[in-house]
From TrEMBL:
Pfam families linked to this entry: SBP_bac_1
Signal sequence coordinates: 1-21
Cellular localization per UniProt: Cell envelope
Protein name: Extracellular solute-binding protein
Primary site of residence: other
Length: 435
């Protein structure tokens, strides 16, 4: 009955020429008739049902707090079905089950492209006179690269690499807190100082979300060729990024546990066991750490010749599915989520703005008492690094680069580890392309 009701609603909308016709894609002549342009129709007054598939891994309750409730408040005549990526609710299963997806929420766009849901929204940007110049430039640039000059979706918020540290450990060992503007070499020295054994307890100076550090490296070096998916692991610039991070695990006492890398054995000792002084990861972990560790943050470290430049931005995008029969309505959602109104709300909730004008960040995390007094301004670099395009084979690259890190931890030289990882990457990408 529900599907029938929305089919009728879609037909009614098609009749007034605002959203696509029943059973088809977008109507390129929407809003016009033989006599010329028809009067505009306020879509917000007409019932619309929109399906949002969110791949970020957050539970639906958190997604409602993040944006779902605000969408219901802004568009009271519309209904929103937010489907998080959990259990069987994966994109291929939803598609196979006949669900028409209007928007896909993800950072890299890999899922959207893998299942051929991407569609250029340049026509909607022009039609609604949307100003892309309001947005953080590198977030738009990566979309242009992804869509060969077009654009598949709009960024709604972002994250960046940041250095969390345990103030209590620095106080206990009498070492100065990490500072903004530190070079990688300075961070290396601090890591060595903080790696020690005291009272029979071993402490590590630094652990990190290694794959995110590489994916968002400050040098703007991609891990794969954008067209072929072949590994660029041995490219001089990317190799420099890999060597820079992997050297921290070669400090005596700071190695990989059991020569294995996984996120839990990097993050848990920082905020659960409190045996790691610093953790380099994506911003946004404050909720996890708030009740367990006396934390603060410092800026992402810099290469000597890249001072003032942070990590790459890691935006979350709302991709408008080309399968949507409600493109104009979906675009209004994208437009609202990038508005000053929503961005101000999001900033107060501890979400980094996607706007080029970062003035809304003056109220950053104002509604979160556990970040008060923290150096949260360090979460936004003065300038984001040049963005790199992530291919649909990005997961293969990440897996093989972690395998290369583990090989280095076991004593393999970097060149051999990266060469073998590149060979495995290319073999797997080739197999995927041959399917």
């Amino acid at each position: 009955m529900l599907n029938k009701r929305w089919t009728i609603a879609a037909c009614m909308l098609a009749a007034v020429g605002t959203i696509s016709a029943c059973g088809g894609g977008a109507n390129p002549k929407a809003g016009n008739d033989q006599a010329g342009e028809t009067p505009s129709v306020d879509l917000t007054k007409i019932p619309v049902h929109l399906v949002i598939h969110d791949t970020t891994g957050e539970k639906v309750e958190l997604l409602m707090d993040k944006y779902g409730n605000k969408l219901k408040e802004k568009f009271p005549n519309w209904t929103f079905e937010i489907v998080p990526k959990v259990d069987s609710k994966t994109l291929p299963n939803l598609i196979a089950g006949g669900t028409t997806i209007d928007m896909v929420v993800e950072s890299t766009g890999v899922s959207t492209m893998e299942y051929d849901l991407q569609g250029d929204i340049s026509d909607l940007i022009a039609k609604h006179k949307y100003d892309l110049n309001r947005l953080e430039p590198t977030a738009v640039e990566i979309q242009r690269k992804m869509a060969n000059g077009g654009i598949y979706g709009l960024p709604t918020w972002t994250r960046s690499m940041i250095l969390y540290y345990n103030k209590d450990l620095f106080d206990m060992f009498g070492v100065s807190y990490p500072k903004d503007g530190m070079t990688w070499d300075e961070l290396y020295d601090v890591t060595r100082k903080m790696t020690r054994t005291e009272g029979g307890q071993s402490y590590k100076g630094l652990t990190m979300a290694f794959e995110f550090g590489l994916m968002l490296n400050q040098l703007g070096a991609p891990s794969q060729d954008a067209k072929s998916g072949k590994a660029l692991f041995l490219d001089d610039t990317f190799k420099k990024a890999f060597e820079n991070q992997s050297r921290f695990y070669q400090i005596a006492g700071n190695g990989l546990p059991g020569d294995r890398f996984y996120l839990d054995n990097q993050q848990n000792p920082f905020y659960k066991n409190k045996t790691v002084a610093m953790f380099l990861t994506l911003s946004g972990a404050e909720k996890i750490y708030k009740d367990s560790v006396n934390w603060d943050v410092a800026e992402f470290p810099v290469f000597e010749d890249k001072k003032g430049i942070g990590s790459q931005s890691y935006p979350t995008y709302f991709f408008l599915s080309k399968a949507s029969k409600n493109r104009d309505a979906a675009f209004q959602v994208l437009s609202y989520l990038t508005s000053d109104e929503y961005q101000s709300f999001a900033s107060r909730s501890g979400i980094i703005t996607i706007l080029k004008d970062t003035s809304v960040m003056k109220q950053f995390a104002a509604d979160l008492p556990y970040v008060q007094g923290k150096r949260i301004q360090a979460m936004i670099p003065a300038k984001y690094a040049e963005p790199t395009l992530k291919t649909k084979y990005n997961a293969i690259a990440n897996k093989e680069l972690l395998a290369a890190l583990e090989a280095v931890a076991k004593g393999t030289d970097v060149n051999t580890a990266l060469r073998e990882a590149a060979e495995r990457n290319d073999k797997q990408v080739g197999a995927e392309q041959g399917k």
